[in-house]
Amino acid sequence: MLRTLVLFVFGYIIVEMILLISLGRALGLVPTLLIVLGAGFLGAWLARREGLRSALRMRSQMAAGAMPAAELTDGLLIGLAAVLLIIPGVLGDIIGIALLLPPTRAFIRRSLAAKFGKAATFSRFTVDESGRAVHTPRGDQIIDARVIETRVVEE
């Protein structure tokens, strides 16, 4: 895992350097710097705006008593976008600005939900007519059981 992460980071740095050098050769130093700085400022403005919108939606969902799962995911993606925009580079700026756009975030959110929804195991506790708690895990067999004796132990 650590080896894969190190290889990914080095690969990312090499791709960023190749893109910056290529852009610098094609446009020149000043336009390249303006593009990188402009993307950073634009990204910071978009991150602030989208972050505030996400926080307001999260607050309204929580006030309504609902779990703000989509808003939490949006907040994480906006935070990732902000980090990518702070780091100088063309690829990071492109990915960061793409993450700040609501349609892109919605697509990534759906993809993540599909990926992690398959891997997650869900269980459910219900109470039947007699007041007994019934645990019905997904894919397991339901066994009918009854508590015969209980005892309270005081410390």
Q: Which stretches are low in confidence, meaning pLDDT under 50 for 5 or more residues running?
A: none
Helix fraction, binned, reads: 55-70%
Count the E strands. 2
Cα-atom radius of gyration? 25 Å
Biggest sheet architecture: 2 strands, antiparallel
Shape: elongated
State the secondary-structure class: mainly alpha
- How far the N terminus sits from the C terminus, by CA atoms, comes to 47 Å
Topology pattern, helix = H, strand = E: HHHHHEE
Oligomer: single chain
The average pLDDT is: 81
The portion of residues forming beta strands comes to under 5%
Report strand order across the widest sheet: 1-2
How many helices does DSSP assign?
5
What's a quick, concise take on this entry?
Helices cover about 70% and strands about 5% of the residues.
Please tell me about this protein's structure.
- The radius of gyration is 25 Å and the shape is elongated.
- The protein has a two-stranded antiparallel sheet with strand order 1-2.
- It is mainly α and 155 residues long.
- It has five helices and two strands.
- The longest helix has 35 residues, at 29-63.
- The protein has helices at residues 2-27, 29-63, 69-86, 90-100, 102-119; strands at residues 125-127, 133-135.
- The two termini are 47 Å apart.
What distinguishing features does this structure have?
5 helices; two-stranded antiparallel sheet; 70% helix; 155 residues; 2 strands; single chain; mainly alpha; 4% strand
